Structures are given as C-alpha cells and as structure tokens.
Recover the amino acids of this structure.
C-alpha cells in the first residue's frame, strides 16, 4: 500500500504548476508570460527533503531567545543565505527576557501535594530529555510568594467573572486557577488581577488539549498528563516588544524604562500547570458545582471553590536584558529600490519548536533559496525584497517589533507590504490580513497546487474536509460565504505582523497551512522533530506549498507595474463589520448613527469598481509612463497608512490602525473597527460615537487616495 501511495504522490508532484489565468493584477499583458516563467521556476525549486534537513538542525536542540543556541541558529541561517548568494546580515537588539529562578506550587491542605512543574522525557522522542530546556513558566509574570484559597474561574475571561459575581463568589485575595483556551493566556492573569486575585495558575485541560481530543503523545498527537504550555503573559494588547522601550528600538546603550514603569508586566505571580498537576488542586475544591460549559474532561466533579484547598505559590526571575538576533536578507530592486516587499518568520522557540516556529521558518528558507536561484538565472526584481528571520517572537514579538521601531521612518516611506508566516501544518492554506490584498491572495493561491491533488490552493480551501484542529468553528454565514468564494480573515495579534500592520500601517498578511493536524504539544518539550514527522506535515509537502506560495507572492509584489491593491473587497468587508456592530448595539437597545460611515463605504465601493475597470483597460497597453506610474504606486502604498491615527486607540496609543487590532480582552483574537466595537462592548455610547467619527475620517482619507489613484490611472 505504501509503495502504491508513493507512486501516486510522485505522479502528483511531477505535475506542472497549476495553469495560470490570462491576466495577473498589476501586470501589463505583454509582461505576463515572462512573469509566469519566473514563477514556474521559483515554484519548481523548493524540495521537501531540504525542509526536513533544515528542521533537523534548527529544531535539533532547544534554542529559546536570549540563549547561545539562539545565536547559533541565527548564524546558521545567515550562513545558508550567504551560501546561496544573498546579501544578508544579523541585526542585534536587546530586550528584557526574564528566566525563572524559583517556581513552586504546592497544595498545603487538606491533602498535601507538591506540583511537579516538569515534563518527563519519553524514550520514543530523542530530544525530549536534552539539557538546556527552559523550565515550564510564564514569562513576564510577577515575582511573588503567596498562600491563599483557590477559585476556579473557567477560561478566566471577563464573562466568567460576571458569573462568579452573580454567584456571590469574590476572588479578591484568592489564587485563581483557569484553563487554557478562549483567549490568549496573558488575558487570564490580567483579568484575575483586575478582580483582586493575588496569583493565577493556568492549566491545560484534557477537554481542549489532551485525551478528550485524541490519543496522547507518543501514541497520538495530544498533550500527555505532565505536558505544559509555556508562554508569555506580557500585556501585548497595550504594546508588544521590549517592555522597557515602547515605541523605540532597544539596542546597546539605548534608553530604558525602569521595571516599575513597564506597563506590560503582569502584576501578580503566574505559572502554567499540566493537567496532572492541576487535578490535585481542582479535585480538592469545594463550593458550588460549576455550570456544564465550565467543565473539562478530568475525572472529577468541577467545583468553583473557595474552600478547603489552600495553595502556596512562589516565583522569582532573573530580570535580565538579553540579546536578540534578527537575520535579514536583501535582494535589491532594479527600478524602485526604495519600495520594499518584506517577508518574515521567527526562528526562536520555547524549547525545540519543530512545529512552532521551525515548520514555517524552513519553508521561508526554501523561499529564499528559490529567489536566490532566480537571481543566478538573471532575474532582478523591480522592487527590493527583504526576507527576515526574527528572534524573540515567543516572549512578545520582540525581534520584529524592535526592528520595526528602529526602521520606522524608513518603513513608513518605503514598505509596500509585509508577509508573515509562523508554524505550518497539514491541510489547506489559511490567510488573514489586509483586505486590500484579498484579490491578490486569491490570484496567487490559484497558481499553487494543493498538495496531493490535481487542483490548486483556492479550490482546496473551498472544498476541504472538516477541520480536525482546535480552531473555533466558523459561523454558518461565514462558512456559506467561503463555499462560494475564497476569503481572508482579519489579523489580531499572535505573530510578527503586529508592528508592521498595527503600528506602522503597512499592508500585511499571515499565511500557513492547517486543518488536518491535531496538536497537543504547543510550547512543550514534545514540540519536536519526532512529533512533527509522525503527526503533522509528515512528508513536508504542505511546507513546500507554503514556500511556493510565498515565493510567488513576493515575485508579484516586487515585479508588478502597478501594485495589486484592490478596494471593493475591503469596502464590502468593512460594511459587514458595521452590520455586526449595529447588531451588538441593538442588544442594549441602542442605535449608533453610522450613516456617515456607510456613505464612505459606499463611495469606496463605487470608486473601487471604477478603479478596477480603469486598471483592467490600462494593463492592455504596451507601456506606461514610468514617472506617472511611480506617482500612482506611491498613492497606493499610502492606502493602508491612512487607516492609522497618531494618537492610536483608546487607552493604548501604540496601536495606530483603526480597522484591525487585537482585542483588549482577547489578546490574539481580532477586534475589527476596534475603537467603535470595544466602546460598544463596554456600553460607552459617547465613546462609540467619537470612534465612529475617527473611522469615518480614515475611510474618507482612503477615498481620497483611491480618487487620486483613479486620476493617476486616467493620465496613464
């Protein structure tokens, strides 16, 4: 059977690139054949066996940010890029990266239990017992030594505390225990502290992250009883990056805030637990039985507490600033070198990180090798391409944020778009980002074969089997929409695009494959080569497809005569966001006047359609005036910038974008039209009206950019 399957796969892999359409947005008709030739050559370069080889080195040992091994990985990546003929260098930064020195969790009564706080090695996984593994901890939690009763707060989001309050249960002076899920981990201690808790424990319940979902590692892919999810609890909805340098780069000798001034550090001790350690606490809680939706899959009755169970938590850290090593490769542009197309993936991991982030980093390495090979064949991009391998992402998007803050003036002037990837798995392509690039993404994905099939990534995404991973199910309306057309999602936070999109207003995308991989090893010692090659993209074909997709996207953005931004998709999407906000307000019997906003959106639809018609006609010409097309592209580059405001969002000035942002109480999860939406969520109707006016101004500015672009097109 394996031999037959191998023959089938070989046949599929030998197929030519998926047939391309007769037009490519932004390319003159006469240039399309040449562009397709370069794309096909780029798509034929990535090799699955190379992805595996890169992973074997990078994920072969623990390489957390700030460690000597992280530097070694950066230098290894640099060496490969230079060997392939690319200009590349390392940019070094510094950032506060606390490592733990004390970690204690013990149940004092009624039944004493000392938490293991350690993941055991397993014989089947050769890297699980290596030295230099970072212990299980949550970075940027407070040092502390506390003893108190315990309250179980479900997922630890604001709605859970509303239920506790209705039941007359106060967490003030208590230790809160919550399960991972529903929101980013940093939100859980933040909300606990706001309600007066003196410590927060976060555990992985087997319902979301263990045997309830499937067989545990090493028999299956799910988290074993002693597996622990490490992770940062930096308050990134305020600002990411070095906590001591918000808005400027943290380099040797640069100014730093005092620790007491850093607003993103947690105020209470926090530690992550395995479900093995958590059960010893939860099974001793008394008080009311929790609602059905609060119950996990441990073999106990879930009580909310407080009562009986008394727990001692002690933490301390080495509060040291440590080095970061960003690796940057540059392919200079031949015609417009001061227009930059950037792609990035991080290289640091909590431990070995075969899945997160190495699976994505090795795909980007093959993209870099593909473009290096094109250079050797005479290809020169019109615009400059930069490929970055960031450090310190896991601690709080450190390397990318410090780099973006250092180069922010240049980036505001020169950056066209930023393409991000992180981990990738088996399944179909998933893209989120700026909706002015939705049509562009669809075109690019339509040129790449869906692994193991004779169709392309668009068709694979629209007609895939049910997802087996742990993402939330899509709303029925969105699923129905996706069956008809390929769409992209909106970006919140969680990876290195944040500084580019939210801070600088650079059109951004995040892409990766998923949907057919279950995972319970996130941020644990079991995120290893052994796990990845048994339970994820075992043949590295999806990673190869990601490399092909990224290379093609970079080629098109770098070589298009007219940058491929499009505005109708954006307008339709924003209109949908306004519908959602209006419905949410109506739940409180409130009506927000969004008529002026609707007018801007409708104007944008109409002008976007006119722009599309003019562009389509223009692309049939034999040549364009280089000066006038340069003016047009400068205007198009501004189309995302005008959606930002210098004063930023309410209570978090670092986040400038008015259309997309991570939610203040969701962390990774996006809040679209965040100023308006969060004001509605908090029932601050005056603020909602004020924020609506700000978004109206942004959309009016975008309408002016599109009108200017129409004028430029007409002159060509």
């Amino acid at each position: 059977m394996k031999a037959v399957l191998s023959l089938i796969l070989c046949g599929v892999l030998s197929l030519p690139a998926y047939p391309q359409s007769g037009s490519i947005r932004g390319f003159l008709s006469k240039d399309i054949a040449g562009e397709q030739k370069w794309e096909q050559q780029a798509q034929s370069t990535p090799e699955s066996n190379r992805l595996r080889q890169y992973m074997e080195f990078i994920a072969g040992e623990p390489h957390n940010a700030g460690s000597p091994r992280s530097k070694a990985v950066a230098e290894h990546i640099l060496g490969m890029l230079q060997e392939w003929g690319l200009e590349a260098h390392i940019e070094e930064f510094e950032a506060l990266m606390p490592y733990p020195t004390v970690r204690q969790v013990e149940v004092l009564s009624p039944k004493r239990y000392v938490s293991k706080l350690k993941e055991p090695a397993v014989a089947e996984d050769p890297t699980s017992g290596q030295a230099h593994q970072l212990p299980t901890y949550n970075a940027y939690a407070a040092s502390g030594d506390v003893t108190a009763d315990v309250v179980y707060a479900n997922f630890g989001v604001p709605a859970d505390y509303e239920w506790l309050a209705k039941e007359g249960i106060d967490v003030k002076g208590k230790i809160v225990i919550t399960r991972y899920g529903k929101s980013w981990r940093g939100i859980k201690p933040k909300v606990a502290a706001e309600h007066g808790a003196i410590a927060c424990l976060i555990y992985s319940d087997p319902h979301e992250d263990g045997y309830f979902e499937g067989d545990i590692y090493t028999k299956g892919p799910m988290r074993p009883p002693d597996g622990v999810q490490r992770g940062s609890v930096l308050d990134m909805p305020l600002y990411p990056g070095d906590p001591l340098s918000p808005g400027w780069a943290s380099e040797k000798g640069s100014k730093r805030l005092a620790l007491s001034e850093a607003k993103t550090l947690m105020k209470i001790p926090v530690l992550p637990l395995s479900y093995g350690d958590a059960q010893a606490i939860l099974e001793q809680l008394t008080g009311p039985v929790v609602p059905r939706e609060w119950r996990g899959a441990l073999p106990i009755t879930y009580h909310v507490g407080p009562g009986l169970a008394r727990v001692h938590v002690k933490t301390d850290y080495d509060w040291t600033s440590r080095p970061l090593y960003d690796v940057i490769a540059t392919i200079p542009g031949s015609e417009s070198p001061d227009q930059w197309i950037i792609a990035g993936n991080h290289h640091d991991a909590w431990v070995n990180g075969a899945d997160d982030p190495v699976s994505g980093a090795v795909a980007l390495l093959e993209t870099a090798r593909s473009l290096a090979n094109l250079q050797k064949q005479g290809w020169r991009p019109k615009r400059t391409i930069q490929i970055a391998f960031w450090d310190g992402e896991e601690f709080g998007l450190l390397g990318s944020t410090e780099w973006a803050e250092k180069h922010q003036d240049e980036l505001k002037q020169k950056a066209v778009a930023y393409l991000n990837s992180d981990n990738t798995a088996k399944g179909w392509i998933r893209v989120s980002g700026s909706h002015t690039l939705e049509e562009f993404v669809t075109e690019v994905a339509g040129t790449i074969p869906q692994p193991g099939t004779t169709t392309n990534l668009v068709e694979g995404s629209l007609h895939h089997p049910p997802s087996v991973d742990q993402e939330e199910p899509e709303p029925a309306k969105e699923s129905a929409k996706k069956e008809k057309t390929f769409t992209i999602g909106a970006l919140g936070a969680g990876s290195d695009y944040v500084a580019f999109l939210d801070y600088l207003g650079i059109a951004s995308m995040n892409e990766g494959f998923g949907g057919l991989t279950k995972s319970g090893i996130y941020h644990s010692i079991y995120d290893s080569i052994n796990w990845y090659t048994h339970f994820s993209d075992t043949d590295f074909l999806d990673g190869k497809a990601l490399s092909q997709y990224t290379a093609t996207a970079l080629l098109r953005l770098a070589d298009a005569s007219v940058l491929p931004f499009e505005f109708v998709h954006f307008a339709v999407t924003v209109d949908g966001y306004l519908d959602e906000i209006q419905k949410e307000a109506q739940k409180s019997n409130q009506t927000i006047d969004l008529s002026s906003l609707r007018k801007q959106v409708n104007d944008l639809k109409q002008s976007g359609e006119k722009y599309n018609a003019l562009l389509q006609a223009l692309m049939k010409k034999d040549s364009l005036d280089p000066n006038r097309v340069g003016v047009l592209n400068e205007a198009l580059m501004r189309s995302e910038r005008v959606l930002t405001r210098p004063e930023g969002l309410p209570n978090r000035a670092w986040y400038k974008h008015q259309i997309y942002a991570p939610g203040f109480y969701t962390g990774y999860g996006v809040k679209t039209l965040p100023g308006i939406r969060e004001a509605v969520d908090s029932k601050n109707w005056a603020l909602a009206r004020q924020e609506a006016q700000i978004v109206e101004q942004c959309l009016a500015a975008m309408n002016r950019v599109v009108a200017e672009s129409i004028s430029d097109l007409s002159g060509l």
Q: What stands out?
A: The chain has three domains: 24-96+322-559, 99-319, 568-715. The two ends are 60 Å apart (CA to CA). The longest strand covers residues 99-109. Residues 685-715 form the longest helix (31 residues).
